[in-house]
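Input (structure):
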């Protein structure tokens, strides 16, 4: 099954050597599950010809906000609506989670409660999972027909299911220990509260359930369900 990766950002230059860019990170995350990948760097204006250029679609994270004015945002939203109308399975992570909601009529905002970083616990479809997070923006209003399948006190719509057409998630199951450590050491200082950064650093050696999410993503791509 061919998955089109809609790349909406780049890993910072000083972190690419140790982590790869987003397409490599997601390909590694989903490896061994019968999927092949083609990347379209929409952040650089590289778009597919249409929604049928892949059997399924995955939208990555980004340092940009879904509500910001960038030349690739509007055409990406239109492509999302076309993919959704065609019925190809679509998964969004962090920014991908947000832009899908926005494109389909929801709302994304910078959360007044601040940042979520590092290991957090989510109950997704009734199953408790520990995953890395890195975000301040959130989906605050769902599109019509969307269903929240995970929410916390901090993040009301942490994972959302759009029937059998889209599954989106706010945390980053694809981020491993090395990358989250790099982010905490190079990007968090002076940006997020120091107590929050130290708390996240203290949990670096705690396990996450990323492999379970990779299974869930693959199941949604191939069978249009998450359980």
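Output (sequence):
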């Amino acid at each position: 099954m061919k998955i089109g990766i809609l790349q909406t950002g780049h890993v910072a230059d000083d972190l690419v050597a140790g982590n790869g860019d987003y397409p490599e990170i997601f390909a590694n995350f989903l490896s061994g599950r019968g999927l092949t990948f083609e990347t379209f760097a929409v952040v650089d204006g590289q778009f597919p010809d249409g929604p049928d250029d892949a059997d399924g679609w995955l939208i990555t994270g980004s340092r940009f906000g879904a509500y910001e004015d960038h030349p690739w945002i509007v055409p990406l939203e239109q492509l999302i609506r076309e993919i959704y109308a065609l019925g190809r399975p679509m998964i969004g992570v962090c920014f991908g989670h947000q832009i899908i909601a926005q494109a389909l009529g929801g709302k994304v905002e910078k959360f007044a409660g601040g940042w979520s970083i590092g290991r957090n616990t989510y109950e997704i479809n009734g199953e408790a999972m520990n995953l890395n997070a890195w975000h301040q923006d959130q989906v605050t209003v769902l599109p019509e027909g969307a269903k929240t399948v995970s929410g916390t006190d901090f993040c009301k719509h942490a994972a959302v299911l759009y029937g059998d057409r889209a599954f989106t998630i706010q945390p980053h199951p694809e981020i491993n220990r090395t990358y989250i450590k790099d982010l905490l050491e190079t990007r968090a200082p002076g940006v997020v509260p120091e107590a929050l950064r130290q708390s996240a650093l203290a949990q670096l050696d705690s396990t996450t359930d990323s492999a379970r999410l990779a299974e869930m993503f693959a199941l949604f791509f191939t069978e249009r369900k998450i359980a």
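Notes: The chain is about 30% helix and 25% strand. The chain has one domain: 2-111+135-175+208-223.
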